[in-house]
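Appendix B. Extra example for self-study. Work through it before the problem class; the solution is given directly after the inputs so you can check yourself.
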Amino acid sequence: MRVTVIGTGYVGTVTGACLAYLGHRVSCVDMDADKIAKLKRGEMESDVIFIAVGTPPRRNGEANLSYLESAARSIGAAIDSERFRVVVNKSTVPVGCGNLVETLVREGIREAHPKEERRIRFGVASNPEFLREGCAISDSLYPDRIVLGAEEDQTMDMLRSLYEPLTRQSFDAPSFLPRAVSMTRVPLVATTLTSAEMIKYAANTFLAMKIGFANEVANLCERVGADAIEVMAGIGLDSRIGARFLNAGLGWGGSCFGKDIQSLLHTAEEYGYQARLLEAALAVNRAQRQVVIQKLQEKLFILKGRTIALLGLAFKPDTDDMRDAPSLQIAERLIQLGARVKAYDPVAMPACRAQNPELKIQYCSSALDAVYEADAAVLVTEWDEFRKLDLAQLACVMQQPVLVDGRNLYDPETARSAGLDYTGIGRSTRPRFNSGRSGHVAETTADSTVTLLDEGSK
Ligand SMILES: NC(=O)c1ccc[n+]([C@@H]2O[C@H](COP(=O)([O-])OP(=O)(O)OC[C@H]3O[C@@H](n4cnc5c(N)ncnc54)[C@H](O)[C@@H]3O)[C@@H](O)[C@H]2O)c1
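Solution. Structure tokens for the complete assembly:
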């Protein structure tokens, strides 16, 4: 099929590349003036047109739909009556936006070529995206499910056929990303526009709540002397709960969870409903980001004049995305309290510097450079590079060897024996009946423990 993708950000680029890989002919369009001009001149011959533009939050939490609106209007201005086309919304949008897209495409048609209005045929669909930054291609080629929302058969049939190579897993796997033996078919959820839109919000808010739950339990673990990693392994083995997204840490971030919860809360408000669990998910996460500051205050008492090193800035590893990254709030708060902030991130420093010019962070060339003569270090993002750090060397070059491990990346006993004054999130400081990491969990469920540690913040 011929496909156009409008918006070539994190989602649009991967969608375009993967659909091209499956054998479709794909054009990608962005705000680039030349490309938009082409679109407006009607050089859009596609059967399927994806909208993958940003839907950032406004101040009141409502999704800003201005990019979506302008994309939908330009589609209307560009399509002709030659054949039936499908406009697919991949951006995360509030429930009801499928109807809005249809209205805007019609308005675009009416403005650009009113005489053809009756002859132009198109359908509107919702196809929410579930990819994770950092493993976006793998998530796109081997997804857990594909969700399609549409109101009529012709639209649904075209999208089923577009995605057939994925649902049947009939394409040749790329050599750099082999297919797992268990991956034989991908379930397709065919539903209405409204349900598809709701599925995306429900999935993201559930994941955010799950992490928030792990954080809340971790905070309780600290108080009663239990170990959050072992508690989460213990509950994650229950198949009704599942082991993933139970990592305690300094809270989730990124462009989706906060924005989507706020947007769903806004929708709830429009219908006069108070979504208490969603409110709590936001509040718990907001508070969790401050836990690091409290831990630093407990160790150093005064933060004014101290130098704190942040290891990692991106909201999670393997991306340079700084949207709603916990590192930003932590750095801001530390600076407010009079501390000097040094930071190192393998990838996200240019993005952080460009997007936050007012933030007085001293950017460093390595983790060691960042912690050099620092009074404390905070592990903010669990980059692989940080797993391999020589902790004894770290302890040696620091002014005070205080390490707050905001992602529970290190084994407390290993860190302590390397000379660090180590604090994790929800880790027990009680002496164990047998030393090392050989408690019940590690002995019997080594794989689950690894899964828990691998999962990251989003
Ligand atoms: N990033 C993720 O991991 C992720 C995952 C699932 C869903 N989503 C959702 O997908 C959508 C896109 O997210 P993203 O992270 O790719 O955003 P992004 O900001 O990286 O990309 C959006 C792109 O759209 C372009 N754009 C905006 N208006 C346009 C227009 N009228 N015409 C052409 N191009 C236009 C922008 O220039 C930008 O390049 C959002 O709704 C987001 O919530 C994102």
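Self-check: The pocket of nicotinamide-adenine-dinucleotide is lined by residues 6-12, 29-31, 52-55, 67, 70-71, 91-92, 129, 131, 133, 255-256 (CB under 6 Å). If your reasoning did not lead you there, revisit section 3.
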